[in-house]
Amino acid sequence: MALHWGICSAGKISHDFVCGLSTLDPTLHSVMAVAARSAERSQTFAELHQIPKSYASYEELASDDSIDIVYIGSINTEHLPLCKLFLNHNKNVVCEKPMALNVKQLTEIQSLAKEKNLFCMEAVWSRFFPVYQKIRDIIASKEIGEAQIVQATFCLPLITKERVAMKALGGGAMYDIGLYTAQFAMMVFGDEAPTSVSVSGHLTSEGVDAGANITLLYPNNKMATLVYSGVCGMSNEAEVGCTEGKIKIYNPFWCPTGMEVTKTTTGRTDQFQFPVPNSKVKPFYDNSTGLRYEAEAVRQAINDGKKEHPLMSHEASKNLATIVETVRNSLGYVIEGDRASP
Ligand SMILES: NC(=O)c1ccc[n+]([C@@H]2O[C@H](COP(=O)([O-])OP(=O)(O)OC[C@H]3O[C@@H](n4cnc5c(N)ncnc54)[C@H](OP(=O)(O)O)[C@@H]3O)[C@@H](O)[C@H]2O)c1
Ligand 1 centroid to 73 CA: how many Å? Predict the structure, then answer.
């Protein structure tokens, strides 16, 4: 069955999501409408992507009966009110990461989705890439033994971007990029909550996190060492050390097209490539047509009657939000509703 998408906000990632959808079978994914805070932005977006309806308010999109599911691509502080708006209008929801600013907000969204019996997922798109599927298969098959150590680095000089710089806009590098290192470690270790989270890092003069080193510990001597920063660039790869080999994901590890697997016993390294297709309209961000994998996975889950996606379940989002909140709070970035808030 086809999915009829509504697009909430006309910014960069919404643009890229529609580019990704444009690479899928149009009889299975159709974009019915877009909404932005201004009629002009919404109309320009609709014309560029040939979307039939454009709205000048999110409420109009919520009231459109032709829509099955809304993709929310607004800034972080708007995710809670927008998820509630669309769920309350009986729309399924896929919301950009971080779905909420803290665990309290996330629980509010997930509880409402459960009460309304609607599909609801945090858009951690990385997990739907073929490279990530290959990694899950290798780990499950134990062909290079047991996964023991994860190392991931995500550093880009983006802390001066307004929505990342400002606390009032839900800024900070952990929400924007650090979160991807944590979700990767979580996936390798079966999405369980770590037994401990240690953090050292820096706040900016605006009071948001500039970057940090994070160590996650898991049972049976497993651990992850993660580095993220919004002040400079690094090679942005990820590695998994296993008892009989290792896996490397090439840059950009959060939306990858290439990886390699080394077997210790043979010394042999195999490379794998999974290129993303091009779209007619050019996306803003790296490999963004790869948003297609997430969109198609959501369609299949909804067709199967699921209300959560097993690759990014409510529990996984909650464990991720717990890590993100712990990291922020350890560095002194506290917001209302955090466990560390007064
Ligand atoms: N999956 C990924 O790879 C990826 C990549 C980048 C970002 N993201 C996530 O996507 C979200 C948006 O990022 P982006 O780069 O697309 O941002 P963006 O283009 O700067 O803004 C997105 C939209 O947010 C709304 N907005 C902007 N400033 C606002 C304000 N002060 N108050 C209320 N709404 C405001 C606008 O909606 P209108 O159009 O309605 O005016 C804007 O179009 C973030 O949550 C980010 O974490 C994900």
Answer: 6
